[in-house]
Amino acid sequence: MSEHGAPVLARERADSDAVLAAVEAADLRLVRFLYCDYGGIVRGKATHAAGLADRLEEGIALTSAQMAMNALDQLQPVAGMTAVGEVRLVPDPASFVMLPYVPRTGAMMCDLLTLDREPSPGCPRSFLQRVLRRADDRGMSVEAVFEHEFFLGREVDGRYHPADRSLCFSTVGMNAAAPFTDELIAALEAQGLRVEQALPEYGAGQQEISIRHAPALAAADNQIVVRETAKAVAARHGMVASFAAKPFPDQIGSGAHVHLSLWDIHTGDNLLYDPDRLPHRFSELGAQFVAGVLDHLPALTAITCPTVNSYRRLQPHAWASAFVCYGFDNREAAVRVPSTFWGREQGTTNLELKTVDNTCNPYLALGAIITAGLDGIERRLDPGPPLDVDPGLLTDEERERRGMRRLPGSLDEALDELAQDKVLGSAMGEMLREGFLTVRRSEAEFYRHRPEEDEFASHYARY
Ligand code: MG
Predict the structure, then answer these.
(1) Within the chain, which residue ranges are assigned CATH 3.30.590.10?
(2) What's the gap in Å between 317 CA and the centre of ligand 1?
(3) Residue 215 and residue 142: Cα distance in Å, rounded?
Protein backbone atom coordinates (compact mmCIF):
# COMPACT_ATOMS: atom_id res chain seq x y z
CA MET A 1 0.00 0.00 0.00
CA SER A 2 1.31 3.40 -0.89
CA GLU A 3 1.97 5.69 2.03
CA HIS A 4 0.68 9.04 0.99
CA GLY A 5 2.46 12.15 2.20
CA ALA A 6 3.03 15.77 1.37
CA PRO A 7 3.91 16.32 -2.31
CA VAL A 8 7.51 15.72 -3.31
CA LEU A 9 8.60 15.61 -6.93
CA ALA A 10 9.45 12.04 -7.81
CA ARG A 11 12.26 13.11 -10.08
CA GLU A 12 13.98 16.18 -11.37
CA ARG A 13 11.82 17.23 -14.32
CA ALA A 14 14.27 18.21 -17.05
CA ASP A 15 13.92 20.77 -19.86
CA SER A 16 15.13 20.33 -23.47
CA ASP A 17 18.66 21.61 -22.81
CA ALA A 18 19.05 19.28 -19.85
CA VAL A 19 17.86 16.33 -21.97
CA LEU A 20 20.36 17.12 -24.74
CA ALA A 21 23.17 17.46 -22.20
CA ALA A 22 22.24 14.18 -20.51
CA VAL A 23 22.00 12.32 -23.83
CA GLU A 24 25.40 13.60 -24.88
CA ALA A 25 27.05 12.90 -21.51
CA ALA A 26 25.75 9.32 -21.49
CA ASP A 27 26.60 8.84 -25.18
CA LEU A 28 23.10 7.55 -25.91
CA ARG A 29 22.42 6.30 -29.41
CA LEU A 30 18.61 6.23 -29.45
CA VAL A 31 15.83 8.12 -27.70
CA ARG A 32 12.36 6.61 -27.74
CA PHE A 33 9.36 8.89 -28.31
CA LEU A 34 6.57 6.98 -26.54
CA TYR A 35 2.80 7.24 -26.23
CA CYS A 36 0.07 5.03 -24.82
CA ASP A 37 -2.84 4.25 -27.10
CA TYR A 38 -6.53 3.57 -26.42
CA GLY A 39 -5.78 -0.14 -26.11
CA GLY A 40 -3.40 0.66 -23.26
CA ILE A 41 -0.41 -0.44 -25.34
CA VAL A 42 2.82 1.56 -25.02
CA ARG A 43 4.18 2.29 -28.48
CA GLY A 44 6.61 4.72 -30.02
CA LYS A 45 9.38 5.50 -32.46
CA ALA A 46 13.03 6.10 -31.63
CA THR A 47 15.19 8.89 -32.98
CA HIS A 48 18.95 8.71 -33.34
CA ALA A 49 20.56 10.98 -30.77
CA ALA A 50 22.16 13.03 -33.58
CA GLY A 51 18.71 14.25 -34.65
CA LEU A 52 17.35 14.79 -31.17
CA ALA A 53 17.77 18.57 -30.98
CA ASP A 54 15.53 19.06 -34.04
CA ARG A 55 13.06 16.38 -33.07
CA LEU A 56 12.55 17.86 -29.62
CA GLU A 57 11.00 20.81 -31.46
CA GLU A 58 9.55 19.14 -34.54
CA GLY A 59 8.48 15.84 -33.10
CA ILE A 60 8.26 12.60 -35.10
CA ALA A 61 5.57 12.09 -37.73
CA LEU A 62 2.79 9.60 -37.05
CA THR A 63 -0.17 8.78 -39.24
CA SER A 64 -3.49 9.90 -37.76
CA ALA A 65 -4.68 6.34 -38.27
CA GLN A 66 -2.27 4.96 -35.68
CA MET A 67 -4.51 5.89 -32.73
CA ALA A 68 -7.32 3.87 -34.30
CA MET A 69 -5.33 0.66 -33.85
CA ASN A 70 -6.63 -1.74 -31.21
CA ALA A 71 -4.60 -4.00 -28.92
CA LEU A 72 -4.68 -6.69 -31.63
CA ASP A 73 -3.02 -4.40 -34.20
CA GLN A 74 -6.27 -4.12 -36.14
CA LEU A 75 -7.07 -0.65 -37.48
CA GLN A 76 -10.57 0.52 -36.63
CA PRO A 77 -12.76 3.01 -38.49
CA VAL A 78 -12.65 6.25 -36.50
CA ALA A 79 -13.51 9.65 -37.96
CA GLY A 80 -10.39 11.82 -38.14
CA MET A 81 -8.07 8.83 -37.74
CA THR A 82 -7.56 7.64 -41.29
CA ALA A 83 -4.60 6.96 -43.54
CA VAL A 84 -4.81 10.55 -44.75
CA GLY A 85 -3.50 13.05 -42.22
CA GLU A 86 -0.65 13.25 -39.75
CA VAL A 87 0.06 14.13 -36.18
CA ARG A 88 3.40 14.77 -34.50
CA LEU A 89 4.77 12.87 -31.51
CA VAL A 90 6.24 15.74 -29.50
CA PRO A 91 8.11 14.70 -26.36
CA ASP A 92 7.79 16.22 -22.92
CA PRO A 93 11.40 16.77 -21.78
CA ALA A 94 10.19 16.60 -18.19
CA SER A 95 9.47 12.90 -18.70
CA PHE A 96 12.98 12.02 -19.91
CA VAL A 97 14.51 8.83 -18.50
CA MET A 98 17.56 6.78 -19.42
CA LEU A 99 16.52 3.18 -19.83
CA PRO A 100 18.62 0.94 -17.58
CA TYR A 101 17.54 -2.29 -19.29
CA VAL A 102 18.61 -1.67 -22.90
CA PRO A 103 21.94 -0.30 -24.19
CA ARG A 104 22.43 3.41 -24.82
CA THR A 105 18.75 4.34 -25.01
CA GLY A 106 16.60 7.03 -23.43
CA ALA A 107 12.84 7.64 -23.53
CA MET A 108 10.29 10.43 -23.23
CA MET A 109 6.52 10.42 -23.15
CA CYS A 110 4.90 12.39 -25.96
CA ASP A 111 1.86 14.49 -26.63
CA LEU A 112 0.19 14.13 -30.02
CA LEU A 113 0.11 17.54 -31.70
CA THR A 114 -1.68 18.56 -34.88
CA LEU A 115 0.25 20.21 -37.69
CA ASP A 116 -0.93 23.55 -36.24
CA ARG A 117 1.02 22.69 -33.07
CA GLU A 118 -2.19 22.30 -31.11
CA PRO A 119 -2.87 19.29 -28.89
CA SER A 120 -4.61 16.67 -31.02
CA PRO A 121 -8.22 16.18 -29.85
CA GLY A 122 -7.48 12.46 -29.85
CA CYS A 123 -4.45 12.70 -27.53
CA PRO A 124 -4.90 11.02 -24.11
CA ARG A 125 -1.96 12.81 -22.48
CA SER A 126 -3.28 16.19 -23.62
CA PHE A 127 -6.71 15.24 -22.21
CA LEU A 128 -5.19 14.73 -18.74
CA GLN A 129 -3.41 18.09 -18.99
CA ARG A 130 -6.72 19.78 -19.92
CA VAL A 131 -8.41 18.26 -16.88
CA LEU A 132 -5.52 19.31 -14.62
CA ARG A 133 -5.85 22.89 -15.86
CA ARG A 134 -9.49 22.78 -14.75
CA ALA A 135 -8.38 21.66 -11.29
CA ASP A 136 -5.74 24.41 -11.30
CA ASP A 137 -8.44 26.97 -12.15
CA ARG A 138 -10.13 25.90 -8.91
CA GLY A 139 -6.86 26.38 -7.01
CA MET A 140 -6.14 22.65 -6.75
CA SER A 141 -3.21 20.48 -7.67
CA VAL A 142 -3.62 16.72 -7.81
CA GLU A 143 -1.16 14.15 -6.48
CA ALA A 144 -1.62 10.54 -7.50
CA VAL A 145 0.00 7.14 -7.77
CA PHE A 146 -0.91 3.79 -9.30
CA GLU A 147 -0.27 0.77 -7.06
CA HIS A 148 1.22 -1.90 -9.28
CA GLU A 149 0.27 -5.56 -9.07
CA PHE A 150 1.55 -7.99 -11.68
CA PHE A 151 2.41 -11.62 -12.23
CA LEU A 152 5.78 -13.19 -12.89
CA GLY A 153 5.32 -16.20 -15.14
CA ARG A 154 6.95 -18.45 -17.67
CA GLU A 155 5.74 -19.33 -21.12
CA VAL A 156 5.39 -22.95 -22.20
CA ASP A 157 3.96 -23.57 -25.68
CA GLY A 158 2.04 -20.31 -25.83
CA ARG A 159 0.52 -20.70 -22.36
CA TYR A 160 1.71 -18.95 -19.20
CA HIS A 161 2.35 -20.39 -15.76
CA PRO A 162 3.08 -18.61 -12.45
CA ALA A 163 6.81 -18.43 -11.73
CA ASP A 164 6.32 -19.58 -8.13
CA ARG A 165 3.67 -20.95 -5.77
CA SER A 166 4.28 -18.44 -2.99
CA LEU A 167 1.65 -17.68 -0.37
CA CYS A 168 0.48 -14.11 0.22
CA PHE A 169 3.22 -11.92 1.78
CA SER A 170 5.28 -15.08 2.30
CA THR A 171 9.04 -14.83 2.77
CA VAL A 172 9.37 -17.88 0.50
CA GLY A 173 7.93 -15.71 -2.27
CA MET A 174 10.19 -12.81 -1.33
CA ASN A 175 13.24 -15.06 -1.65
CA ALA A 176 12.07 -16.61 -4.92
CA ALA A 177 11.59 -13.18 -6.51
CA ALA A 178 14.52 -11.43 -4.80
CA PRO A 179 16.99 -11.38 -7.72
CA PHE A 180 14.26 -9.92 -9.96
CA THR A 181 12.95 -7.51 -7.33
CA ASP A 182 16.38 -6.14 -6.50
CA GLU A 183 17.14 -5.45 -10.16
CA LEU A 184 13.70 -3.92 -10.69
CA ILE A 185 14.11 -1.52 -7.77
CA ALA A 186 17.58 -0.50 -8.95
CA ALA A 187 16.21 0.12 -12.45
CA LEU A 188 13.28 2.21 -11.13
CA GLU A 189 15.57 4.25 -8.88
CA ALA A 190 17.91 4.85 -11.80
CA GLN A 191 14.91 6.42 -13.57
CA GLY A 192 14.18 8.70 -10.60
CA LEU A 193 11.27 6.81 -9.04
CA ARG A 194 11.10 6.29 -5.30
CA VAL A 195 10.08 2.77 -4.35
CA GLU A 196 8.09 2.46 -1.12
CA GLN A 197 7.21 -1.22 -0.79
CA ALA A 198 7.72 -4.50 -2.63
CA LEU A 199 5.99 -7.73 -1.67
CA PRO A 200 4.70 -11.08 -2.95
CA GLU A 201 0.95 -10.64 -3.36
CA TYR A 202 -1.96 -13.02 -2.92
CA GLY A 203 -1.67 -14.89 -6.23
CA ALA A 204 1.00 -17.45 -7.07
CA GLY A 205 3.82 -15.55 -8.75
CA GLN A 206 2.06 -12.25 -8.10
CA GLN A 207 4.08 -9.21 -7.06
CA GLU A 208 3.24 -5.75 -5.84
CA ILE A 209 5.49 -2.74 -6.03
CA SER A 210 4.45 0.66 -4.77
CA ILE A 211 6.17 3.90 -5.57
CA ARG A 212 5.96 7.44 -4.25
CA HIS A 213 3.09 9.58 -5.49
CA ALA A 214 3.71 12.51 -7.81
CA PRO A 215 1.83 15.34 -9.56
CA ALA A 216 -0.85 13.63 -11.65
CA LEU A 217 0.83 13.97 -15.06
CA ALA A 218 4.10 12.54 -13.71
CA ALA A 219 2.09 9.84 -11.92
CA ALA A 220 0.67 8.72 -15.27
CA ASP A 221 4.14 8.80 -16.84
CA ASN A 222 5.41 6.75 -13.89
CA GLN A 223 2.75 4.07 -14.41
CA ILE A 224 4.26 3.50 -17.84
CA VAL A 225 7.82 3.54 -16.50
CA VAL A 226 6.95 0.81 -13.97
CA ARG A 227 5.16 -1.38 -16.54
CA GLU A 228 7.96 -1.04 -19.09
CA THR A 229 10.70 -1.66 -16.55
CA ALA A 230 9.10 -4.68 -14.85
CA LYS A 231 8.53 -6.38 -18.19
CA ALA A 232 12.06 -5.71 -19.39
CA VAL A 233 13.73 -6.81 -16.15
CA ALA A 234 11.59 -9.97 -15.98
CA ALA A 235 12.72 -10.87 -19.51
CA ARG A 236 16.35 -10.65 -18.37
CA HIS A 237 15.47 -13.27 -15.74
CA GLY A 238 13.83 -15.59 -18.24
CA MET A 239 10.33 -14.65 -17.10
CA VAL A 240 7.37 -12.78 -18.54
CA ALA A 241 5.81 -10.10 -16.33
CA SER A 242 2.14 -9.41 -16.98
CA PHE A 243 -0.04 -6.53 -15.81
CA ALA A 244 -3.21 -8.12 -17.22
CA ALA A 245 -6.17 -7.86 -14.86
CA LYS A 246 -6.93 -11.58 -14.52
CA PRO A 247 -4.43 -13.63 -16.52
CA PHE A 248 -4.94 -16.91 -14.60
CA PRO A 249 -8.44 -18.32 -14.10
CA ASP A 250 -7.52 -19.92 -10.76
CA GLN A 251 -5.63 -16.94 -9.29
CA ILE A 252 -6.66 -13.58 -7.91
CA GLY A 253 -6.57 -10.64 -10.35
CA SER A 254 -4.06 -7.79 -10.52
CA GLY A 255 -5.26 -4.28 -9.82
CA ALA A 256 -3.73 -0.85 -10.09
CA HIS A 257 -5.45 0.95 -7.23
CA VAL A 258 -5.18 4.70 -7.69
CA HIS A 259 -4.39 6.82 -4.64
CA LEU A 260 -5.19 10.47 -5.04
CA SER A 261 -5.13 13.69 -3.02
CA LEU A 262 -5.96 17.35 -3.73
CA TRP A 263 -3.74 20.22 -2.60
CA ASP A 264 -4.35 23.95 -2.28
CA ILE A 265 -1.96 25.55 -4.77
CA HIS A 266 -1.67 28.69 -2.61
CA THR A 267 -1.32 27.34 0.93
CA GLY A 268 0.05 23.85 0.21
CA ASP A 269 -2.64 22.32 2.46
CA ASN A 270 -4.22 18.95 1.78
CA LEU A 271 -7.79 19.78 0.75
CA LEU A 272 -9.03 16.29 1.69
CA TYR A 273 -8.13 16.87 5.34
CA ASP A 274 -10.36 18.68 7.83
CA PRO A 275 -9.32 18.33 11.49
CA ASP A 276 -12.75 19.47 12.67
CA ARG A 277 -14.75 16.91 10.70
CA LEU A 278 -14.85 13.93 13.06
CA PRO A 279 -14.44 11.03 13.27
CA HIS A 280 -12.48 10.60 10.04
CA ARG A 281 -11.21 14.16 9.51
CA PHE A 282 -12.11 13.77 5.83
CA SER A 283 -13.18 17.11 4.35
CA GLU A 284 -16.53 18.01 2.80
CA LEU A 285 -14.70 18.79 -0.45
CA GLY A 286 -13.20 15.31 -0.32
CA ALA A 287 -16.65 13.80 0.23
CA GLN A 288 -17.97 15.71 -2.78
CA PHE A 289 -15.09 14.42 -4.89
CA VAL A 290 -15.84 10.86 -3.75
CA ALA A 291 -19.53 11.38 -4.56
CA GLY A 292 -18.63 12.52 -8.08
CA VAL A 293 -16.45 9.46 -8.64
CA LEU A 294 -19.25 7.18 -7.40
CA ASP A 295 -21.84 8.99 -9.53
CA HIS A 296 -19.83 8.31 -12.70
CA LEU A 297 -18.29 5.01 -11.63
CA PRO A 298 -20.13 2.62 -13.99
CA ALA A 299 -19.01 4.73 -16.98
CA LEU A 300 -15.59 5.44 -15.51
CA THR A 301 -15.01 1.70 -15.21
CA ALA A 302 -14.87 1.42 -19.01
CA ILE A 303 -11.75 3.59 -18.91
CA THR A 304 -10.12 2.29 -15.72
CA CYS A 305 -10.88 -1.43 -16.36
CA PRO A 306 -10.82 -1.39 -20.15
CA THR A 307 -10.23 -4.97 -21.28
CA VAL A 308 -12.55 -7.94 -21.65
CA ASN A 309 -10.32 -9.68 -19.14
CA SER A 310 -10.75 -6.83 -16.59
CA TYR A 311 -14.28 -7.95 -15.76
CA ARG A 312 -13.14 -11.32 -14.48
CA ARG A 313 -11.43 -9.38 -11.69
CA LEU A 314 -14.33 -7.12 -10.68
CA GLN A 315 -16.10 -9.74 -8.62
CA PRO A 316 -17.24 -9.67 -4.98
CA HIS A 317 -14.66 -10.80 -2.35
CA ALA A 318 -11.71 -10.22 -4.71
CA TRP A 319 -10.37 -7.02 -3.07
CA ALA A 320 -11.44 -5.27 -6.25
CA SER A 321 -14.99 -4.15 -5.51
CA ALA A 322 -18.03 -5.06 -7.53
CA PHE A 323 -20.40 -2.39 -6.23
CA VAL A 324 -20.67 1.40 -6.30
CA CYS A 325 -19.90 2.35 -2.69
CA TYR A 326 -17.26 3.92 -0.47
CA GLY A 327 -16.02 3.33 3.03
CA PHE A 328 -13.30 4.16 5.53
CA ASP A 329 -10.70 1.37 5.53
CA ASN A 330 -13.21 -0.79 3.64
CA ARG A 331 -11.18 -2.89 1.20
CA GLU A 332 -14.23 -4.19 -0.62
CA ALA A 333 -15.55 -0.69 -1.33
CA ALA A 334 -14.84 0.78 -4.77
CA VAL A 335 -13.58 3.94 -3.07
CA ARG A 336 -11.66 3.45 0.14
CA VAL A 337 -10.55 6.31 2.37
CA PRO A 338 -7.53 4.80 4.11
CA SER A 339 -6.71 5.58 7.73
CA THR A 340 -3.92 8.12 8.12
CA PHE A 341 -0.52 7.58 9.72
CA TRP A 342 0.26 8.74 13.26
CA GLY A 343 1.59 12.25 13.39
CA ARG A 344 1.17 12.73 9.62
CA GLU A 345 -2.60 12.98 9.50
CA GLN A 346 -2.80 15.88 7.07
CA GLY A 347 0.01 14.65 4.82
CA THR A 348 -1.36 11.13 4.52
CA THR A 349 -5.07 11.79 3.95
CA ASN A 350 -5.99 10.44 0.52
CA LEU A 351 -8.60 8.40 -1.30
CA GLU A 352 -8.16 5.16 -3.18
CA LEU A 353 -10.11 3.91 -6.21
CA LYS A 354 -9.94 0.13 -6.46
CA THR A 355 -11.75 -0.33 -9.76
CA VAL A 356 -8.62 0.27 -11.82
CA ASP A 357 -6.18 -2.14 -13.43
CA ASN A 358 -2.92 -1.70 -15.29
CA THR A 359 -4.38 -2.40 -18.72
CA CYS A 360 -5.73 1.16 -18.61
CA ASN A 361 -4.25 4.10 -20.41
CA PRO A 362 -3.06 6.01 -17.30
CA TYR A 363 -3.69 9.43 -18.87
CA LEU A 364 -7.28 8.57 -19.72
CA ALA A 365 -7.80 6.92 -16.34
CA LEU A 366 -6.53 9.81 -14.20
CA GLY A 367 -8.19 12.38 -16.46
CA ALA A 368 -11.54 10.62 -16.17
CA ILE A 369 -11.29 10.04 -12.40
CA ILE A 370 -10.46 13.70 -11.79
CA THR A 371 -13.22 14.83 -14.18
CA ALA A 372 -15.74 12.76 -12.21
CA GLY A 373 -14.46 14.09 -8.88
CA LEU A 374 -14.53 17.71 -10.04
CA ASP A 375 -18.11 17.18 -11.21
CA GLY A 376 -18.96 16.05 -7.66
CA ILE A 377 -17.37 19.22 -6.27
CA GLU A 378 -19.11 21.47 -8.79
CA ARG A 379 -22.51 19.88 -8.06
CA ARG A 380 -21.79 19.67 -4.31
CA LEU A 381 -22.78 16.02 -4.31
CA ASP A 382 -23.15 14.09 -1.06
CA PRO A 383 -21.88 10.50 -1.10
CA GLY A 384 -24.24 9.49 1.72
CA PRO A 385 -23.14 7.40 4.68
CA PRO A 386 -19.98 5.33 4.27
CA LEU A 387 -20.27 1.56 4.10
CA ASP A 388 -18.76 -0.29 7.06
CA VAL A 389 -19.37 -3.87 5.90
CA ASP A 390 -18.31 -5.96 2.92
CA PRO A 391 -20.89 -5.02 0.25
CA GLY A 392 -20.74 -8.57 -1.14
CA LEU A 393 -22.15 -9.89 2.15
CA LEU A 394 -25.30 -7.76 1.97
CA THR A 395 -28.46 -9.22 0.47
CA ASP A 396 -29.72 -7.91 -2.87
CA GLU A 397 -32.60 -6.23 -1.00
CA GLU A 398 -30.22 -4.52 1.41
CA ARG A 399 -28.01 -3.24 -1.42
CA GLU A 400 -31.10 -1.97 -3.24
CA ARG A 401 -32.33 -0.23 -0.07
CA ARG A 402 -28.99 1.54 0.16
CA GLY A 403 -29.13 2.45 -3.55
CA MET A 404 -25.92 0.52 -4.23
CA ARG A 405 -25.44 -0.33 -7.90
CA ARG A 406 -23.56 -3.35 -9.20
CA LEU A 407 -20.65 -2.30 -11.40
CA PRO A 408 -20.83 -3.30 -15.06
CA GLY A 409 -20.34 -7.03 -15.45
CA SER A 410 -18.62 -6.87 -18.81
CA LEU A 411 -16.63 -4.52 -21.02
CA ASP A 412 -19.68 -4.18 -23.29
CA GLU A 413 -21.86 -2.99 -20.41
CA ALA A 414 -19.20 -0.56 -19.23
CA LEU A 415 -18.74 0.90 -22.73
CA ASP A 416 -22.51 1.37 -22.98
CA GLU A 417 -22.39 3.31 -19.71
CA LEU A 418 -19.51 5.46 -20.99
CA ALA A 419 -21.35 6.18 -24.23
CA GLN A 420 -24.22 7.58 -22.12
CA ASP A 421 -22.11 9.68 -19.74
CA LYS A 422 -22.31 13.30 -20.89
CA VAL A 423 -19.86 14.71 -18.34
CA LEU A 424 -17.05 12.28 -19.21
CA GLY A 425 -17.95 12.44 -22.90
CA SER A 426 -17.77 16.21 -23.15
CA ALA A 427 -14.54 16.36 -21.11
CA MET A 428 -12.94 13.83 -23.46
CA GLY A 429 -14.31 15.45 -26.60
CA GLU A 430 -15.81 13.71 -29.59
CA MET A 431 -12.70 12.30 -31.25
CA LEU A 432 -11.16 10.87 -28.09
CA ARG A 433 -14.47 9.45 -26.89
CA GLU A 434 -15.32 7.87 -30.24
CA GLY A 435 -11.81 6.57 -30.77
CA PHE A 436 -11.70 4.93 -27.36
CA LEU A 437 -15.19 3.42 -27.64
CA THR A 438 -14.56 2.07 -31.13
CA VAL A 439 -11.19 0.52 -30.28
CA ARG A 440 -12.42 -1.11 -27.08
CA ARG A 441 -15.65 -2.35 -28.68
CA SER A 442 -13.61 -4.02 -31.39
CA GLU A 443 -11.61 -5.92 -28.76
CA ALA A 444 -14.79 -7.03 -26.98
CA GLU A 445 -16.10 -8.29 -30.31
CA PHE A 446 -12.87 -10.15 -31.10
CA TYR A 447 -12.78 -12.08 -27.82
CA ARG A 448 -16.48 -12.93 -27.97
CA HIS A 449 -15.62 -15.57 -30.56
CA ARG A 450 -12.42 -16.89 -28.99
CA PRO A 451 -11.93 -19.69 -26.44
CA GLU A 452 -11.32 -18.47 -22.86
CA GLU A 453 -7.78 -19.92 -22.83
CA ASP A 454 -6.85 -17.61 -25.72
CA GLU A 455 -8.19 -14.60 -23.85
CA PHE A 456 -6.08 -15.41 -20.78
CA ALA A 457 -2.91 -16.09 -22.79
CA SER A 458 -3.32 -13.15 -25.12
CA HIS A 459 -3.96 -10.67 -22.30
CA TYR A 460 -1.03 -12.14 -20.38
CA ALA A 461 1.27 -11.52 -23.34
CA ARG A 462 -0.01 -8.07 -24.38
CA TYR A 463 -0.03 -6.41 -20.97
MG1 MG B 1 -2.26 -5.31 -3.38
Answers:
(1) 131-462
(2) 14
(3) 6
* Cα 179 to middle of ligand 1, angstroms: 21
State which fold the 3-120 domain adopts.
Ubiquitin-like (UB roll) (3.10.20)
DSSP string, 266-277: TT--BTTB-TTS
Q: What stretch(es) of the chain map to CATH 3.10.20.70? A: 3-120
Reported as a single tens digit per residue, the pLDDT across 251-275 is 999 999 999 999 999 999 999 999 9
What global pTM score does this model have? 0.95
Q: What is the DSSP string of 224-244?
A: HHHHHHHHHHHHHTT-EEE--
Give the three-class secondary structure for 146. strand
Answer yes or no: is pLDDT of 320 > 90. Answer: no
Distance 198 CA to ligand 1 centre (A): 10
- CA 153 – ligand 1 centroid, Å: 18
- pLDDT of 317 > 80? The answer is no
Separation of 263 CA from ligand 1 center, angstroms? 26
Give the Å distance between the CA of 397 and the centre of ligand 1: 30
Predicted local confidence at residue 13, as pLDDT: 63
Distance from the alpha carbon of residue 168 to the mean position of ligand 1, in angstroms: 10
User: How far apart are the C-alpha atoms of 201 and 224, rounded to whole Å?
Assistant: 21
Give CATH for domain 131-462: 3.30.590.10
β-sheet bridge partners, residue 326: 335
